[in-house]
Each structure stands twice: as structure tokens, then as C-alpha cells.
Amino acid sequence: MSRISYCIANWKMNHTSDSIKQFINDLESIDSFKSDVKTIICPSYVHLYLVQNFLFESNIEIGSQNVSEFDLGAFTGEVSANMLKDIGVRYVILGHSERRHLFSETNKQINCKLNAVIKNDLEPILCIGETLEQRKDGDTEKVLREQLNSMFNKIVDLSKVSIVAYEPVWAIGTGIAADLETINSTHKLIRKILNNCGLQSDAISLLYGGSVIPENCSEIFKLEHVDGFLIGGASLKPETFTKIYIKMKIIRNNYS
Ligand code: PGA
Fold first, then answer.
1. Which residues are 92's β-sheet partners?
2. Which residue of the set 69, 98, 130, 167 is catalytic?
3. Which atom of ligand 1 is nearest to the CA of 235?
4. Closest ligand 1 atom number to CA of residue 210
5. Which residues touch 192 (CB under 8 Å, ≥6 apart)?
6. Which of 211, 220, 229, 241 best tests ligand 1's pocket when mutated (most atoms within 8 Å of CB)?
7. pLDDT(1) > 60
8. Does the active-site annotation cover 167?
9. If you placed Cys at 234, which of 138, 139, 151, 240 could pair as Cys (CB 3.0 to 4.6 Å)?
10. Which is the closest atom of ligand 1 to the Cα of 171?
């Protein structure tokens, strides 16, 4: 089955309006982003509208890096799923390891956020991943199973879940991506867990994230169970982001 391929930029807390203008100007050619590889840029909340306007006529979509689990009300500093939808955001990253570890986001909260995202017809990009200690202790399967099971608890319409990103915590921002065997076997395991959770894993795009760069992306993207990337550091510069995208596009064309 041919799943959708994704090349997703997670800009984290980077960029200003000037550097965003520069980034868009320097992208090789916005038109070249029309292909079977879907491109999504996830800037900070305050830049969503700006990026949306810049990319209005392109095939590049925008996503948010986070969302509130609440619908509306007295939640100072929060942004609801409905507000994101209101400005044309289509995708939302949920459960990123930096949210889990730096901001103590729990599986329960992520589950509530997923509910909010689905209720508002947005598309979740669900992040999961184990720490180095958990991997060394042989707990990877247990951790991934727990993360997925609790995310999906009492979610009414699981058919809205179509993108899951495996991001081993130890590979994020370290410059050391997981090796090919680890990525492929863990993705295979995730497909099994997704099936056990009642999802149709064959239809879900499984992305890898963690120190993806132009130099390692081709080998990883060719793996059977990898359908794309969630990219942090290498997505900040238009040259590196475009290089990864172009390599994916060539591989995707050759394989379909
Ligand atoms: P990285 O980040 O590519 O800089 O490792 C990936 C991510 O956090 O999504």
C-alpha cells in the first residue's frame, strides 16, 4: 500500500518575521514542493499567520507545534484547537518529547489534546519515543505501547489519526540519528502496536525524527517502514530543508 510521504519542519522556538521572509525567499522554488511528498512547516504560534500568508498559493501546509487541551475560557497563555482552525492551520504536533520532558506534559494531557484536535477536524502529528535509559533497559516496546495506548484512550474517531512520528529522545538534536536497523525495526513494532490499538497501521504514515540531515535522509527514507520525516535543526535553513525534500521526492518517484 502506498502511504502519503511527509517532509515536516519543526521550527521549535526559532525564527523572526525577517528570517522567515528570508527563508521563504531562499526556498529553491516553491513550485517544486508540488509532489507526492507533502511538506508542512510548523512555526511558533506567533508566526503561524505570517507563514500561512506567505505560503498561501503554494502546496506547503502549516502546522502548529502544540495546542491546549481545553476548548476555551480562562487559560492564560493557551491556544485552542478552534483558534488554530480559525486561521487555517491544518496540522498539530502532539506529544513532542520537548513538551513531555521540559514542560512535564503527561500522556493524559496529550490524550485530551488529541481529542480537541480531532473534534476540530485538525490532523494530529503524534510523537512518541523512548529515552536512552529506557532503550538500554529493554523497555522501548513497553514505553511506546504505553504512550500510544494512553493517547488513544476514549478517542471517538481513531480514523483521524494518520501520522505518527517516532522520535527517539536520544536522537533529537544530538547529531546522532538512530541507526537504520533500529529505525526500521522500531517502526515495524509501532505498526504492530497501532494494530493492537485498533488502528489500520497500513494506512498510517510513520515518520522518523531525530538528527535527520541531507546526508542521512536518503538511506532512512528508503527503509520499508519509513514514510517521511519530522525535522528540527535541518529544517531551519532553506538549503538543508530543500535538499532533504528533493532527495525524498526523487526516491518517492523511483519507488512509485
Ligand atoms: P532534530 O529535531 O531534527 O533537530 O533532531 C527533531 C525534532 O525534534 O522533531
1. 64, 124
2. 167
3. 3
4. 5
5. 201
6. 211
7. no
8. yes
9. 240
10. 5
pTM for the full predicted model = 0.96
Name the region of 154 (left: φ>0; alpha: ψ -120 to 50; beta: rest): left
158 CA to centre of ligand 1 in angstroms:
26
Q: Indicate the top mutation candidate among 172, 207, 211 to test ligand 1's pocket, ranked by most ligand atoms within 8 A of CB.
A: 172
First CA to last CA across the chain, in angstroms? 10
> Which residue has a Cα nearest atom 2 of ligand 1?
232
The tally of CA atoms less than 13 A away on the side-chain side of residue 185 is 7
Q: Is 95 in the pocket of ligand 1 (CB under 6 A)?
A: no
* pLDDT exceeds 90 at position 58: no
Cell of 73: 475560557
| pLDDT, position 130 | 97
pLDDT of 253 > 90? The answer is no
Average pLDDT of the chain?
Answer: 94
Listed residue (168, 171, 129) closest to 148, CA to CA: 129
Helix (H/G/I), strand (E/B), else coil: 157 = coil
Q: Which domains does the chain have, with CATH numbers?
A: 5-255 (3.20.20.70)
Find, among 80, 66, 143, the residue nearest to 107 by Cα. 143
Question: Which amino acid residue places its CA nearest to atom 6 of ligand 1?
Answer: 232
What pLDDT score was predicted for residue 57? 83
CA 41 vs CA 58, 145, 152, 219: distances in Å: 12, 28, 25, 23
Identify the residue whose C-alpha is closest to ligand 1 atom 7. Answer: 232
Residue 241's SS3 state is helix
* Buried residues in 170-205 as b, exposed as e (16+ CB within 10 A): bbbeeeebbeeebbbebbebbbebbeebebebeebb
